[in-house]
Amino acid sequence: MPFFLKHRNEALVEWMDREDCDEELLNNTYSQFTTINKLLSGWAKIYREMIHPILKQNPGETTYILDIGCGGGDIIRLLDGLIKKDGFEAKLTGIDTDERSIRFLQNRDHPENITFRNITSGELAEERTEFDIVISNHLIHHLSENNLRSVCHDAETLAKSLTIFSDIERSDIGYASFGLIAPLLFRSSYIVADGLISIKKSYRKKELQQILPSGWVVTRKFPFRLLATYQPESL
């Protein structure tokens, strides 16, 4: 249990979420997500343990994956590379409500099996679109409790096999470590300032479990990570 960060500070607003933030710094932040998520987010391991088994169940078929709050698109690109390396086929869609994210992504080259859209999860659910797997990375702490529950319900509608939401767990040690190391690696972006704000806004395991809808399971992962997962009961 944290001592200095005992309570979640949900009132804080990250620089990249502000409408008047510097777009050059914002784009640098999107670009640097690739590095920081490779170091800390653990999606390669999540892929091996949770996504790869689903791909193996239907060899030769196309797997459809959705990333809610895709940001700079780095998690989608990472998963696409791992999937292709293992010889599977997938179509990946990233959505983000911030048009600046989509504008950044539209200025980059992507394989034909990757699509990005400026749309909400609710709007996508209304289209009756279905995916095999729905993911998000560092989205949970950005949302109010009501919006989080709403996005979770959208994911339940959208995902046929599995939903995986990954986020930070609030920790004094994590905050201090990030504050010491991140400034050495990341400059000319919002990575350091927003990273520290994100830790202050993030949940502890028990806190997150209490507000998620029924059927969701929260587990801890190293380092200072939480996974919130949902799997339809029929599976």
Description:
The protein is of the alpha/beta class and 235 residues long. The chain has a single domain (15-230), classed as Vaccinia Virus protein VP39 (Rossmann fold, 3-Layer(aba) Sandwich). It has helices at residues 23-40, 43-57, 74-85, 99-106, 121-126, 145-158, 172-185, 191-201, 205-211, and strands at residues 62-68, 89-95, 114-117, 131-137, 159-168, 217-221, 225-230. The protein has a seven-stranded mixed β-sheet with strand order 3-2-1-4-5-7-6, sandwiched between helices. Helix 2 packs across helix 3 and helix 7 runs antiparallel to helix 8. The mean pLDDT is 96.
Question: What is the CATH architecture descriptor?
Answer: 3-Layer(aba) Sandwich
Structural class determined from secondary elements? alpha/beta
User: Could you estimate the helical fraction of the residues in percent?
Assistant: 40-55%
**Total count of domains:** 1
End-to-end distance: 35 Å
Strand order, biggest sheet?
Answer: 3-2-1-4-5-7-6
Q: What is the H level of CATH, i.e. the homologous superfamily? A: Vaccinia Virus protein VP39
Q: How many runs of DSSP E, i.e. beta strands?
A: 7
Mean pLDDT score, rounded? 96
Q: At the first level of CATH, what is the class?
A: Alpha Beta
**Low-confidence parts lasting 5 or more residues at pLDDT below 50?**
none
The name CATH uses for the topology is: Rossmann fold
Order of helices and strands: HHEHEHEHEHEHHHEE
Q: How many distinct helices?
A: 9
